[in-house]
Structure formats: structure tokens, C-alpha cells
Design a protein that fits this description.
By secondary structure, the chain is α/β, with parallel strands linked by helices. The protein has helices at 10-22, 33-41, 59-68, 84-93, 105-118, 152-163, 171-179, 186-201, and strands at 2-6, 26-30, 47-50, 75-79, 97-100, 126-129, 132-135, 140-143, 146-147, 169-170, 210-213, 217-220. The protein has eight helices and twelve strands. The strands form three sheets. Strands 2-1-3-4-5 form a five-stranded parallel sheet, with helices on both faces. It has a four-stranded antiparallel sheet with strand order 6-7-8-9, with helices on one face. It comes from Acidiphilium acidophilum.
């Protein structure tokens, strides 16, 4: 499989290329956004690793241009931009994953393989699970047509669960994705926010959508028809 790495820091780009090739991938490099966008538009890649802060054209606009062209190649943001609004924005634009620098290559590789197993999927403007609808670009969510009053972190958490609907996500992964916490003490933060999210998404409705997976974490799915 072929991966495009769009990264302007030469040492990081070389490290990524070497690591990917050692693990059986073919990798091309682009050191600026304009070149990266041009290569991405050719449609010859199975996945793109994309920085945000790039010369010429930033990563946000590169991804936005691809999605507007109905190019749904999987994109993984790898960036130092670690604020929650940045993560939300990346997902809203149609990114498949978001990793903050500094990073562990083993984790990056695992994320890449997970994305590739899912395959390229069209990033819809909305995601729907039962009567829950998430307007990704509008940053809104409704249940049975009723608006849910979510904070930015709650929306990011719900979006993460919805993008992997039916798939159990560990507390560690949730903590890293939403709060940039990669140690065990982050589990309590996850549990507290899941409790608050359930209060808004599930408590007023008969069918519950957010479920605990014992020993793992949480999953978003409709079990009413199971």
C-alpha cells in the first residue's frame, strides 16, 4: 500500500518514510502543502499523513479541497496543534484520525492499520445512529429531532464514538484523542465525561446508545434490534 506523507520538517519526514517502508508500505514525501495537495489529487494513495502547519497551503485547506473534490482517501492528521478546537475542526473537515506530536511510531502504525482495514469511506456531512444525528460541519447533534446541548469536548467525544460505531474504544484511546492524555489517570476524566454525555444523549430516551464494554471502554451502537 502507498502512503503520502505531507510534512515540512525534514527530520520528521525522513523518520516517517523510513519507518513506513520498514513496515511494508511505499511512501512518498511532500514538504509543503501545495505539492502535497497536487500529489493527493492524483488519487494514487491508500492513505495520507498530513501536517497542519505547512508552507504554501496549510493542512486544513488541503483536506478541505480533497473532500470538495469528492476525494475520500483516508487522511490522518499528525500535528503539534493539540487544542480541542483543532481536533474538532480536523474531524469536521473529514479526517479519519488525529495524532498529536510528539508521537510514538508504534501507535501511529496501529492507527494507520486500523484506518486501512476500514478502507476509504465517504465522509458524510452527517452521521446517524438510530435516532441520533450528528451534523459534523454544523457542530450540532440531535436525538429524535431534539437538539443536544453539547460542549466542544462532548461533541468531539460523541463524534469519535460515532465514527467507530459498533466498535469498542478503550479509555486510553479516548483520553488521548480528546484530552491528549496517554496515561491511566486519564480514565477518570473519560468516565466523568461519558456520564455527562449519557445524561444528554440517553437519559431522556428509552433506547440507550452509549454502552460500557467491561474491561475495555465504551461503544456507541443501537442494541434495541439485537
Amino acid at each position: 500500500m502507498k502512503i503520502l506523507v505531507v510534512e515540512d520538517e525534514n527530520k520528521t519526514a525522513a523518520f516517517l518514510k523510513k519507518g513506513l517502508e520498514e513496515n511494508g508500505f511505499a511512501a512518498d514525501l511532500a514538504n509543503d502543502g501545495v505539492t502535497g495537495a497536487a500529489l493527493a489529487r492524483q488519487g494514487a494513495y491508500d492513505l495520507i499523513i498530513l501536517d497542519v502547519m505547512l508552507p504554501g497551503q496549510d493542512g486544513w485547506s488541503v483536506l478541505k479541497d480533497l473532500r470538495q473534490r469528492q476525494n475520500h482517501v483516508p487522511v490522518l492528521f499528525l500535528t503539534a496543534r493539540d487544542a480541542v478546537p483543532d481536533r474538532v475542526h480536523g474531524l469536521e473537515l473529514g479526517a479519519d484520525d488525529y495524532i498529536v506530536k510528539p508521537f510514538a511510531f508504534s501507535e501511529l502504525l496501529a492507527r494507520i492499520r486500523t484506518i486501512l482495514r476500514r478502507g476509504a469511506v465517504r465522509q458524510a456531512a452527517t452521521m446517524q445512529v438510530a435516532d441520533l444525528e450528528i451534523d459534523v460541519q454544523g457542530h450540532r447533534a440531535t436525538r429524535c429531532g431534539q437538539p443536544l446541548d453539547l460542549t466542544p469536548k462532548e461533541f468531539l467525544l460523541l463524534s469519535l464514538l460515532a465514527r467507530r460505531v459498533g466498535q469498542a474504544i478503550s479509555r486510553t484511546v479516548i483520553a488521548e484523542q480528546v484530552w491528549d492524555i496517554n496515561f491511566d489517570s486519564g480514565a477518570n476524566i473519560v468516565d466523568v465525561h461519558i456520564h455527562r454525555l449519557r445524561a444528554k444523549v440517553d437519559d431522556s430516551f428509552k433506547v440507550k446508545l452509549i454502552h460500557t464494554v467491561r474491561g475495555i471502554g465504551y461503544v456507541l451502537e443501537d442494541r434495541s434490534k439485537g
